[in-house]
Amino acid sequence: MADPSSYRPKPGQIPDSPGVYKFRDEHGRVIYVGKAKSLRQRLANYFQDLAALHPRTRTMVTTAASVEWTVVSTEVEALQLEYSWIKEFDPRFNVKYRDDKSYPYLAVTLNEEFPRVQVMRGAKKKGVRYFGPYAHAWAIRETVDLMLRVFPVRTCSAGVFKRSAQIGRPCLLGYIGKCSAPCVGRISADEHRELAEEFCDFMAGRTGAYLRRLEGRMQDAAEEMEYERAARLRDDIGALKRAMEKNAVVLTDATDADLIAVAEDELEAAVQIFHVRGGRVRGQRGWVTDKVEAVTTGDLVEHALQQLYGDEQGDAVPKEVLVPALPEPVEPVAQWLSQRRGSRVSLRIPQRGDKKDLMATVGRNAQQALALHKTKRASDLTTRSRALEEIAEALGLDSVPLRIECFDISHLQGQDVVASMVVFEDGLARKSEYRRFQIKGRVGDTQVWHGEGQDDVRSMHEVVGRRFRRYLQEKQKSGEWTEEPEGEAPDAPEAPEDAVTAGSGLTDTGTGTAGSGPVDDDGRPRRFAYPPQLVVVDGGAPQVAAARRALDELGIDDVAVCGLAKRLEEVWLPGDDDPVVLPRSSEGLYLLQRVRDEAHRFAISYQRGKRTKRLKSSPLDAIEGLGDTRRTALLKHFGSLKRLRAATVDEICEVPGIGRKTAGTVAAALAGAAPSAPAVNTATGEIMEDDGAPPAALSAERGKDR
């Protein structure tokens, strides 16, 4: 690992002008290419305190052994040179988009004497007109088959064309009227080229004039009583319209635009592009990339624009490019696009109307592409097996962890502190066994209320302890374990919030224990009766130590514990001063990241839901015996809480379903005079007695999902 100060340029050496810079490693290989409006200011950002750098940037500068730069005149030239160098050197720390598949194009080889229509993949060739990309090759063939009836352009290979010319007999397409047979001289080369150019014009969206011309010729043929020719023209018009229907109109103003959307997480990003020509979606493609450097959404958009238009010229660059976020700065990128097109290109974020709606559709496609990419990687059995083996080897486990449980803590400035537990078995999520916890603030035998010293470490200790106390209880009741562990005795059965399932958000109503209560389809007991081989916590050494301490207090020594820290994706083990660093390409690290990210998602969704409910709380919520239906009826009858507070008991009795006793309770509670109307702790949502402690009668309700 190199020290950046060992190759830092001397002050004054770096020019204060636009340019492109390259970092090289000790072997001279280029590992990063960047551009800057001011090279001096930009490079100075890399040579600061390592602790202040983004983790991936820190890895890059410590891997590098030298830096060099090239001065250019403008930012646009810097953008062009950056693209050229990235393409030439393929630096490991730059964003590298990889196609999730090879996209086919409909190509017309105008560079040949007799242009040919065909499906083409790979690098584009000069003199060939391309349309697409299409999602599937069969979609191109269906379109071409419909259009060859009207534009009988050659589609055969060079060998077939040459053979037909030698024997003086056209191929089958020539006999059935789907090729004009220039190979045998039915039409001249100029006539065939004109036919190919009309085909290109129609595919480019200039359809209206051609259809009107065909309709005029059809009417003329009918008037001249040439009904066979009129019928053929009618069928040609129908074929063209069917070909057009395959690309529905999405923008009514016949816009030519490309829409780019990005879906990303901390590790990867997916880009989706819709190509709209003449208001119709003419093509779609997508890329996926690892985020190996610190990049914003605007940076991802800029890299996508470079890859998309770096080798394009003229009409291949549309008049309008719609993006989810603008690069910073945006002017050089817009100017670079305009230069490639030869006229002004609008680069902007859609704000309203059809374009914004279509951008939302592209965004959903990007989200699905990212999810599909992760699913494909996770669903492969061989890959999952290798990931579990790598985890076992890195953590020194005796066997692979077939069941992994991950815990995460979520809160907002100490309020609404919750935790999540997600379960992965055989490397796949088992959502039916996900659990959510409301943190109670237990430290030993002392209750610590939210906001009074509560932190992630104590919360992690509590939630791991609660989960495994339940495990010991289930084990004891099923007859597998008869002695209590040394130290703290197991808790009484927890409130049902520990058994909230994923997806439905409903509380698990099963009350039985292992061996007597409900079981899953595979016969395994529900809830907490099945222990994991590995516990993963979201955090570093302090959280790992807290989880290990909770297990030790319960006498559990056969469950391994590790933590995954977000900053550098380091794996921490209990008692170790240094983390375990798995290679970035490791499938084991990827699985741990998926487990950690799923626990974080599950925890934060629960916390946000609780926060929303707390913010929507009403004084009526604290009135015992008053359900949602009658609360709604009261507010609907009086129109507001202020009017309800001013109403008399008799007036409240007029509300359907409200008796005199309930009316009296409501009136007294809103007046603040009834001892039966407990106060509500606004920080936690707890119902409190006058002395600030939760009433015994409501203690079982404390953990319910409000």
What does it look like?
The chain is α+β, with helices and mostly antiparallel strands. It contains 20 helices and 23 strands. Strands 13, 14, 15, 16, 19, 20 and 21 form a seven-stranded mixed beta sheet that branches. The protein has a six-stranded mixed beta sheet with strand order 4-10-9-8-11-12. It has a three-stranded antiparallel beta sheet with strand order 2-1-3. Helix 13 packs across helix 16 (587-615). The longest helix has 29 residues, at 587-615. The two termini are 51 Å apart.
Q: What is the overall silhouette?
A: globular
Nearest-integer average pLDDT? 76
Helix content: 25-40%
Distance between the termini: 51 Å
Produce the secondary structure layout:
Elements (H helix, E strand, L loop, with lengths): L18 E6 L5 E7 L2 H6 L10 H9 L2 E6 L3 H15 L8 E2 L5 E4 L8 E4 L8 E3 L5 H11 L10 H10 L4 H4 L13 H15 L4 H16 L3 H19 L11 E8 L3 E10 L2 E11 L6 H13 L10 E3 L8 H11 L4 E3 L4 H27 L1 H15 L7 E10 L2 E11 L2 E2 L5 E4 L3 E2 L2 E2 L8 H22 L56 E5 L2 H13 L6 E6 L4 E3 L14 H29 L12 H11 L2 H6 L2 H5 L6 H12 L7 E2 L6 E2 L18
Parallel strand pairs: 8-11, 11-12, 13-19, 19-20
Antiparallel strand pairs: 1-2, 1-3, 4-10, 5-6, 5-7, 8-9, 9-10, 13-14, 14-15, 14-16, 17-18, 20-21, 22-23
